[in-house]
Amino acid sequence: MAIIDSKYNTKATDTAFTLATSGKTVCRLEAKLSRYDWNCLQSLFSFIYNSGVEAGSEQRAEDIRQALGIGGNQRG
């Protein structure tokens, strides 16, 4: 499950991270990240999220989804 949309916007002058399910902006940076840096952060987001799930913490993963505004039982 991807929480953060992995689409890299080449035309933008800044860097924004949006939710994959709703498109809502989670974070916006004034700096424009390179595609390499963007992919590194995407990998980090996935690693952190999946580490919690693999450790048996489905409740923690649910807490993260709720904190990001994805909601209760909604899956993406």
Largest sheet: 2 strands, antiparallel
Beta strand count: 2
Q: How would you describe the shape?
A: globular
| Strand order across the largest sheet | 1-2
The share of residues in helices is: 25-40%
The tally of helices reads: 2
What string, H for helix and E for strand, traces the elements in order? Answer: EEHH
Q: What structural class do helix, strand and pairing data support? A: alpha+beta
- First and last CA, distance: 6 Å
Rg: 13 Å
Low-confidence stretches: none
Average residue-wise pLDDT: 82
**Beta-strand percent range:** 5-15%
Name its key features:
globular, 2 strands, 39% helix, single chain, 2 helices, 76 residues
Provide structural commentary:
The chain is an alpha+beta fold and 76 residues long. The protein has a domain of 53 residues. It contains 2 helices and 2 strands, in the order ββαα. A two-stranded antiparallel ribbon has the order 1-2. The radius of gyration is 13 Å and the shape is globular.
SSE diagram, text form:
Blueprint: E1 15-18, E2 25-29, H1 35-54, H2 58-67
Antiparallel strand pairs: 1-2
Helix pairs in contact: 1-2
Write a concise synopsis of the structure shown.
With 76 residues, this protein is an alpha+beta fold. It contains two helices and two strands; from the N terminus they run ββαα.
